[in-house]
Amino acid sequence: MLGGVSLRNGNRRIAPFYEAPWLDDEIPRQTGLLGQLRSEFPCVPFGVPWSAEAVVESWRKSLAASVDERDHPLDASDDLLHGYVCVAEWTLVRQTDLSIEIALDYPAESSIARVVRVIRADPNAPAIDFSVNIEARHKTRRPIGLHPNLALPSMAGALQIHPGSFRFGVVHPAGPEPGVSRAAPGAVFEQLDRVPLRAGGAAAFDRLPFAHDTEEIIQLCGVDGSLTLTNEESQVAYRLTWDASVLPSLLLWISNRGRTYSPWNGRNLCLGVEPVASAFELGCRPSLTANPINARGVPTAVAIEPGKPVEMAYRFEIVAQ
């Protein structure tokens, strides 16, 4: 994961990314993904298994469905939160003044053989170029995603999200935080400024942070591979671009002080802007079977074959407002 990133914008240094507030806590130390939650990372596969009982009726069949293990054999590493990439030790391949290349070999029983990650600073602009290369041992499909996390400003509504075009949006079918999340689980919408609410009506999800405490996840499906964000508090704008032919959705994780238990403790404030081919973060099984997103023609998994690695290139940059 990236950490401690800043970009030079004129005479200013801008730190756009989020780092979990508990990373400096002495006790208790977190393990796994939460113990190192920073900035940006790939997810192979994307998500973690959810219970069918946790989601609304329209999604239960997808979560309860069984995967044909002959075509897509799953192993223990597929059930890790956002995949083996998030907890294993990577190997340095090469490093220069501007770039680093690291690689990770997957467990022998995994259909994924190897993931290679390249991060390169643009010497001529306040930008970072990334690539993730995924190699397979066996022909298979997996939900895949990227996980940039942005620090939200303190002033309510100061960050505005300008998504590129998308076909439709869907609210997380489980909440995702029972008793806290306000968006209507499983609801479909067409505009980010009119997301249906559980209590009725709609609300704008294009300006953050919210004035109220909440935890929300929504997915924009059939995207064009671009996103711009403007921060009125710091007077800066960011752009994220990626290959939407590989990752055709954008998941927005809005962590708005809505989780009060440890290690979140009501203090987490960030926005995940996550290009995905996945059914939310619900794990491999619903993403590989029929679900309400791929039923509308938007893929929720990526096909990978031996000898034909999948490469995902993307760019994060500061842009003029």
Give me the secondary-structure topology:
Blueprint lengths: L6 E3 L2 E3 L27 E2 L13 H8 L26 E5 L3 E7 L6 E10 L5 E10 L3 E3 L1 E3 L2 E3 L7 E5 L4 E4 L16 E2 L5 E2 L5 E2 L3 E2 L5 E8 L4 E6 L4 E7 L6 E8 L12 E9 L6 H5 L13 E3 L5 E10 L2
Antiparallel strand pairs: 1-2, 3-9, 4-5, 5-6, 6-7, 7-23, 8-22, 9-21, 10-21, 11-16, 11-18, 12-13, 12-17, 14-15, 17-20, 18-19, 19-23, 20-21
Kindly describe this structure.
With 321 residues, the protein is mainly β. It is 4% helix and 36% strand. It has helices at 57-64, 284-288, and strands at residues 7-9, 12-14, 42-43, 91-95, 99-105, 112-121, 127-136, 140-142, 144-146, 149-151, 159-163, 168-171, 188-189, 195-196, 202-203, 207-208, 214-221, 226-231, 236-242, 249-256, 269-277, 302-304, 310-319. It starts with 6 loop residues before the first strand and ends with a strand.
Strand content: 35-45%
Number of strands: 23
- Global morphology: globular
Instruction: List unreliable stretches of 5+ residues.
Output: none
Mean pLDDT: 95
Tally of contiguous helical segments: 2
Main β-sheet, in a few words?
9 strands, antiparallel
String of helices and strands: EEEHEEEEEEEEEEEEEEEEEEHEE
What is the gyration radius calculated from CA atoms? 19 Å
Helix share, percent: under 10%
Head-to-tail CA distance between termini: 28 Å
Strand order of the largest sheet: 4-5-6-7-23-19-18-11-16
Structural class: mainly beta
Brief characterization of the structure:
The chain is mainly beta and 321 residues long. It contains 2 helices and 23 strands.
